[in-house]
Amino acid sequence: MDNYDIDNLLKDIKPRLHKNYNGIFLTDEEVKILKIYGFDINKYSNIKELMFDLEEYLNETEVDELENVLYSLAEFNYYNNTTK
Fold first, then answer.
1. How many CA atoms lie within 13 A of 49 on its CB side?
2. Closest CA to 58 of 46, 67, 50
3. Number of helices and strands in the chain (H, E)
4. What pTM did the predictor assign?
5. Cβ atoms within 10 A of the Cβ of 51, count?
6. pLDDT tens, position by position, for the chain (84 residues)?
7. Phi and psi dihedrals of 24, rounded to 5?
8. Rounded CA gap, 12 and 29, in Å?
9. Which distant-in-sequence residues (6+ apart) come within 8 Å of 35 by Cβ?
10. What is residue 15's DSSP assignment?
11. Using an 8 Å Cβ cutoff, are 23 and 52 in contact?
12. Separation CA 67–CA 45 (nearest Å)
């Protein structure tokens, strides 16, 4: 069996872990970005409300970081909340 450095493995995995905020799963980095732009993630009761507000904000200004968060949310929403 290969020897693995558990600390390095956890360091690589940790940024991809998601935390649940009222049913919305976000990484620590996504939370940080949303807070920078004034989005209070605790006020949203579902992912669609947050996505709507992000789209509205992005209609007024172009912010690559927020576009990436919106893309990530849309992808998560599609794969987890769409009936297939």
1. 12
2. 67
3. 4, 2
4. 0.74
5. 18
6. 455 666 665 555 545 556 777 778 888 889 999 999 999 998 998 999 999 999 999 999 999 999 999 999 998 888 877 765
7. -105, 125
8. 14
9. 41
10. G
11. no
12. 21
